[in-house]
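ok new one. same drill as before - structure tokens go in, u give me an amino acid for every spot. 88 of them this time. try not to just spam alanines like last time pls lmao
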């Protein structure tokens, strides 16, 4: 019989598999040298979505891995926001 920790670990692995590409894509947007506010705003929406999903994961699992996922999502959102703000 699986323990609660097993299910929490499976949830974290699934989050990484489903949203890993989004973390990587947002990281690439942060590193971008070009400036296109409209495109950054689209990616900001994706970052906000990722933050919401990461908050749900952390609320359900509350461990170091879910905390790290949430913190990274929040960092990416802040960094995308800075890209937009720096173009004003």
């Amino acid at each position: 019989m699986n323990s609660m920790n097993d299910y929490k670990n499976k949830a974290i692995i699934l989050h990484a598999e489903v949203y890993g590409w989004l973390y990587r894509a947002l990281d690439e947007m942060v590193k971008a040298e070009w400036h296109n506010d409209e495109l950054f705003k689209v990616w900001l929406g994706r970052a906000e979505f990722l933050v919401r999903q990461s908050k749900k994961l952390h609320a359900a699992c509350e461990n170091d891995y879910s905390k790290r996922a949430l913190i990274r999502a929040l960092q990416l959102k802040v960094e995308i926001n800075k890209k937009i703000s720096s173009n004003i």
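The longest helix spans residues 4-31. and btw Helices lie at 4-31, 37-61, 64-86.
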